[in-house]
Design brief:
Number of domains: 1
Strand order of the largest sheet: 7-8-9-10-6-2-1-11
Strand content: 25-35%
Order of helices and strands: HEHEEHEEEHEEEEHHEH
Radius of gyration: 17 Å
Structural class: alpha/beta
Number of strands: 11
Oligomer: single chain
Distance between the termini: 51 Å
Largest sheet: 8 strands, mixed
CATH topology: BirA Bifunctional Protein, domain 2
Helix content: 25-40%
Shape: globular
Length: 244
């Protein structure tokens, strides 16, 4: 999507990109809520969080216990805690090697409907896959982006006051075996794939993040982005968790 299709003030806004590495899921959710508050109060702002999570299962509005192939208690014993969240989508397994992508965007200011936003968001991942020569059988399906019969990116959002939260999980190079325990897409029994599996070769995660940010910026019409490696809210939370 061309930058010039957006209003001038939307094109001039800088996208705030938070590259946070490994981040606890609850900390990421807290940061999303803070950024959502900020963007709701000043719609000239927009933010994008990129991080990874320790093993955890999140269950969205289309998810249920029937999508988990063990009892919730069994998952906890296996080191897989679960959280029920307000996003769309089903049950997502978060693991290292999977990129969590959380945009905080003012849809009204950008003149986007929710379906238009989801279409463009999915296109970010299609373009990123294309950069790594994963083109064959790539398509946007219900709840995410697929390569053949296997999903590779799961999409699920929440929108309040016309500002987005949550987003997507994109498998770069996680261990794929645990995904057989979770039905990530409510209407599919197939486990998730990964960029490394489809490319059949090693992947440099930093390059994937770089390309994804570039495509996100272009698809949503941001002329520039500003990158941060931390946020004061996360720093303060980490300080409180460190024993005195």
């Amino acid at each position: 999507m061309l930058v010039d299709e957006f209003e001038p003030e939307a094109r001039d806004a800088a996208l705030q990109v938070y590259l946070l590495g490994s981040l606890d899921f609850d900390a990421a959710l807290l940061l999303q809520r803070r950024l959502h508050y900020d963007v709701s109060g000043d719609r000239s702002q927009a933010a994008l969080i990129l991080c990874e999570h320790s093993p955890i299962i999140t269950v969205g509005r289309q998810g249920s216990r029937t999508h988990l192939r063990f009892d919730v208690e069994d998952y906890a014993h296996r080191g897989l805690p679960s959280r029920w969240v307000t996003r769309g989508g089903g049950c997502w397994l978060h693991l290292p090697g999977q990129l969590a992508v959380y945009p905080i965007l003012p849809l009204d200011r950008m003149r986007l409907t929710i379906p238009e936003y989801l279409q463009r968001f999915a296109d970010v991942f299609v373009r990123t896959l294309d950069d790594f020569s994963v083109r064959s059988a790539v398509h946007v399906g219900e709840g995410g982006v697929w390569v053949g019969q296997r999903p590779i990116a799961a999409l699920g959002i929440a929108v309040r006051s016309q500002v987005t939260m949550h987003g997507a999980c994109f498998n770069v190079n996680p261990d794929l075996v645990p995904f057989r325990r979770v039905r990530s897409m409510p209407n599919s029994e197939d486990p998730m794939s990964s960029l490394e599996r489809e490319r059949r070769g090693p992947i440099r995660p930093a390059l994937v993040r770089e390309r994804l940010i570039e495509h996100f910026q272009n698809v949503f019409g941001f002329r520039e982005s500003v990158a941060f490696s931390e946020h004061p809210l996360i720093r303060e939370q980490t300080r409180r968790l460190v024993p005195a």
